[in-house]
Hints:
It contains 3 helices and no strands. It has one domain. Helix 1 runs antiparallel to helix 2 and helix 2 runs antiparallel to helix 3.
Amino acid sequence: xxxxxxxxxxxxxxxxxxxxxxxxxxxxxxxxxxxxxxxxxxxxxxxxxxxxxxxxxxxxxxxxxxxxxxxxxxxxxxxxxxxxxxxxxxxxxxxxxxxxxxxxxxxxxxxxxxxxxxxxx
Length: 121
């Protein structure tokens, strides 16, 4: 009885994390679009690049919540071998997307630190 209640709560938490992830992506895209419209009205320049960065950041943050929701539901609610393998594939795909977006946004991979010109030996 207690374990079933715990699984039910974790299912709700996992689904809630998915909802937050989707909300972040959608609201981030809306905010980025609003910033694009305002920026284009007041100035010229590289507004497309800034728009892509804003949307990319929203997608990256949303992906983190979506992965967390998948992990919670798979590990706690239904930890079968098939579900764990599917989760592994989902995490692998989303990690690849995250790395690709990070490279697009910042121009470097997350584990590469930038060295200041004066700090080089």
